[in-house]
Amino acid sequence: MGMDITGLHIRPKQPMRNLLDEALKQNSPAEHYVWPQDAGPLLPNVYEVDPLRDRRWPSFLQRRPQASVFHSVGWLEALHRTYGYEPIVFTTSPPTSDLQNGLLFCRVRSWATGSRCVSLSFSDHCEPLCDPNREFDILIRGLQIARARQQWKYLEVRTVDQGFGDRAKALGFKSSAKYLIHVIDLRPTAEVIFRRLHKDSVQRRVHRAERAGIVEIRGKSQGHLKDFYRLMVRTRARHDLPPQPCHWFRNLLDCLGDAADLRLAYRDSIPVAGVLVLHFKGTSYYKYGCSDERAHHLGVMPLLLWRAVLRAKFIGSTSFDLGRTDIDNHSLVVFKNHWTSLSQPLTYWTFPSDRSITFMRDWKRTMVKRLCALLPDRMLEATGRLTYRHIG
What we know:
This protein is of the alpha+beta class. The protein is about 40% helix and about 25% strand. A hairpin with a 2-residue loop joins strand 10 (about 270-280) and strand 11 (about 285-290).
């Protein structure tokens, strides 16, 4: 059949493709079999669930301690509205029962970069919500079958839990990217947290910004978003990268509601820095930050981040996720080390284990940076609008 799936037992008189086609015809597009029982004597069915429509998904997330804001309906809806990605959950739980497990992906269809299944597009990490052994094996093998049938270029899993990484490797996945995740522990008092921050790089810069009369504003109006986006374009241009489309940020604010916190710093009514922080189930996430480099000496970014930490603690968060950092980005690693000593590795796992996928990803990133270095801001914005839906 052209598939090499270890451990599958398929009856030769009834090809897998026909079984899958029959199952798809008998069930609705929102929820159907991916792996029929007939595919193996000891393997349960794998079902496909639409997390944007299935009412079981939000309550399931509340029961799973590993669930993050990247699993939330708000984040998935923003991805769908902005880029047209199709969020999908694979589970062994039948439609008539509560969800007991789930593996969340986005189907990305692109004429430029091909079709693939990613867990999860533009998300720092997305833990499998299942046990790392039998459940994970069943769901991944079902996905491998679905990939062969639907001709996806690859599957990608982004996990912090090394147990899932070990199983993914055993199932034929290969490490395609490595990062660090830094997390601030918010359980101590605010005074203790502040004393733990780097004295020169954080504490003194926060005090400097306060003395300079920096004004902080929280808001989600069109004017606030416009100020934030101008700073985002400026920041991405410094790094020779296109900015995300403006409507991505608008959709995040609209879809996440109170779980999205946009904070801006002004000096003499001029915006000089901004951060977008997300909140979910006791964790706050520093997702986006931008600034005017001419105001860096004032300590505006440390001030905004510290105020965001205080806000997170006030609303009951017990941890503050500073986001992923490329292990080769030494300056950013040092910056985050000034805020916390707690970090852990984050690995992206890709199937099939094809070196060309990683090579092409790195090559495209290099070519984009070289191109963006030559473009004015308006062209950078246009480039972002055109390209981001193809790179998720």
